[in-house]
Amino acid sequence: MASMELTSTNFETTISEPGTVLVDFWAAWCGPCRNFAPVFEAASEKYPDITFGKIDTEAEQQLAAAANITSIPTLMAFRDGILVFSQPGALPAEALEDLIGQIQGLDMDAIKKDIAADTTA
């Protein structure tokens, strides 16, 4: 599955869905963003069970501001609606592969339990 364009209209519903969602914040004028784009697209083809979304920070400035994006590219990962990773900078293919493996290996029940404990404390 190729990556999809995320906007303020579909961002919340997309990241809230069960499963893994990777989000690439980018801009056309950004050299590192252009270098990362083929790596992100290749991963989207390799992992059809993961949703890959791209947010053009120029077109979606309010969304980028709400996500506290201060540097691009920035990659965010959500799993079952929970932000589990956020980091600026372009990743090489091997690092993206490793990250995907780590995200898929997360114990979400434990994470949800920790979040619940934090909100009741």
TrEMBL record:
CDD domains the record matches: TRX_family
Disulfide bonds: 30-33
Residues annotated as transmembrane: none
Pfam families: Thioredoxin
Site for Deprotonates C-terminal active site Cys, residues: 24
Residue ranges the record marks as coiled coil: none
Keyword Disulfide bond: yes
GO cellular component, one term: cytosol
GO MF assignments: protein-disulfide reductase activity
Active site: 30 (nucleophile), 33 (nucleophile)
Gene3D superfamilies attached to this UniProt entry: Glutaredoxin
Record domain Thioredoxin: where: 1-105
Site residues, Contributes to redox potential value: 31-32
InterPro entries: Thioredoxin (IPR005746), Thioredoxin-like_sf (IPR036249), Thioredoxin_CS (IPR017937), Thioredoxin_domain (IPR013766)
Family: Belongs to the thioredoxin family.
NCBIfam families (UniProt xref): thioredoxin
Protein name per the record: Thioredoxin
Biological source species: Paeniglutamicibacter gangotriensis Lz1y
